[in-house]
Amino acid sequence: MATPRTILAIVGSYRKGGMIDGAVDEILRSAREAGAETRKIFLIDRKLSFCTNCRSCTQKAGSGHGLCVLDDDMESLFGELDRADAIVLGSPMNAGTVTAVMKLFIERLVATAYWPWGAAAPKSRNPEKTKKAVLVASSAAPAFLARFSGDIVKRLKTAAGMLGASIIGTLFIGLAAQHQHQELSERTIKKARLLGQKLATA
Ligand SMILES: Cc1cc2nc3c(=O)[nH]c(=O)nc-3n(C[C@H](O)[C@H](O)[C@H](O)COP(=O)(O)O)c2cc1C
Questions:
Q1: Which pLDDT does position 4 carry in this prediction?
Q2: 139 Cβ closer than 6 Å to some ligand 1 atom
Q3: 104 in a domain, yes or no?
């Protein structure tokens, strides 16, 4: 029997039970029904410090990621990401971009670059895209307006690339703040479930 695919979701929402959480749950549920193993991590539950720009993690060449000097949960997150075949990156749009905690996580992905002192630009340690990724974003504004005016999808795409993942789909939930406790629409659920299936089998 083939080993089940492992899918790891990284959630940058501040609300458990909110729109991003609900959409990610639908994706993961459908992936499990298609035979995958899934896990979800809320970034707000992890101890993550700000990158201090010491660049220690970028000095030595090699694949994967360089070792960070900060003693927090980032190294264990890298371990979980390494073990995943596919990832889901989810964030609401706040102030036109990903949430602050997702941005912090993305900045810490600098460890996936080889960027010694003297080099003008970083080089990816993971140029081959061996993983698959689905991106999930939400906004109070209608989706087309939010996508046009903000950079959330671009930020999540960059993060997926740094983790060696190619994107197989994006779920953008517009008009996500019409009520305090908003339900996902049938259309969003359907799309989420299709993406879950695709992640489990692609
Ligand atoms: C601090 C803050 C900033 C926000 N900025 C934007 C924004 O720039 N554009 C937008 O369309 N929605 C904005 N929103 C609305 C959120 O995107 C929306 O409530 C969220 O997508 C719902 O996701 P959640 O249920 O997972 O929290 C903002 C919300 C907060 C709390």
A1: 76
A2: yes
A3: yes
Amino acid at 126: N
Q: According to the model, what pLDDT value does residue 199 have?
A: 96
Ligand 1 centroid – CA 90 distance (Å): 13
Does residue 100 lie within any of the structural domains? yes
Segments of the chain scoring below 50 in pLDDT: none
Cβ proximity of 103 and 91 under 8 Å: no
Ligand 1 atom at shortest distance from the alpha carbon of 90: 26
The identity of residue 117, as a single letter, is W
63 in any annotated domain: yes
The three-state (H, E, C) secondary structure of 50-111, written as one string: CCCCCCHHHCCCCCCCCCCCCCCCHHHHHHHHHHCCEEEEEEECECCECCHHHHHHHHHHHH
Q: How far is the CA of 117 from the centre of ligand 1 (A)?
A: 38
Domain count of the fold of the chain: 1
Distance from C-alpha of 29 to C-alpha of 71, rounded to nearest angstrom: 33
What is the model's pLDDT at position 202? 81
Of 15, 40, 99, 139, best ligand 1 pocket probe by most atoms within 8 Å of the beta carbon: 139
What is the domain extent for residue 15? 6-201
Is residue 13 within 8 Å of 99, Cβ to Cβ?
Answer: yes
Q: Is residue 1 part of a domain?
A: no
User: Does residue 93 have its Cβ closer than 6 Å to ligand 1?
Assistant: yes
